[in-house]
Design goal:
Layout: E1 3-7, E2 10-12, E3 18-25, E4 34-39, E5 46-51, E6 58-60, E7 68-73, E8 78-83, E9 92-100, E10 103-106, E11 110-114
Parallel strand pairs: 2-11
Antiparallel strand pairs: 1-3, 3-8, 4-5, 4-9, 5-6, 7-8, 9-10, 9-11
């Protein structure tokens, strides 16, 4: 079974920080690109960040660039999303994603709520 399990979400004040984790199992994690997506209530799921298999290349949505950092630890089969300077507009369920064309695998999501 391919399994992706997100953790680390919660309630944080505007300007605060959270670090999300995604633990992967059931596939050869070290050779796969990994992504983070998010979905706010009433909105479509949107891309947040990408990281290459080795961690040498990253890409971010314009809305989070400069505030979020994606990283990975292939020895631990885990991808991370460090979120700083959080805004109310960052409130969403955050999902870890792995592409197995033509299929996608998703975690269950972790809720991030940014509110005072």
């Amino acid at each position: 079974q391919v399994q992706l399990v997100e953790s680390g979400g919660g309630l944080v004040q505007p300007g605060g920080s959270l670090r999300l984790s995604c633990a992967a199992s059931g596939f050869t994690f070290s050779i796969h690109r990994m992504n983070w997506y998010r979905q706010a209530p009433g909105k479509e799921r949107e891309f947040v960040a990408f990281i290459s298999s080795t961690g040498g290349t990253t890409n971010y949505a314009d809305s989070v660039k400069g505030r979020f950092t994606i990283s990975r630890d292939n020895a631990e089969n885990t991808v991370y999303l460090q979120m700083n300077s959080l805004k109310s507009e960052d409130t969403a369920v955050y999902y870890c994603n792995a592409r197995f064309p033509p299929s996608d695998y998703w975690g269950q999501g972790t809720q991030v709520t940014v509110s005072s």
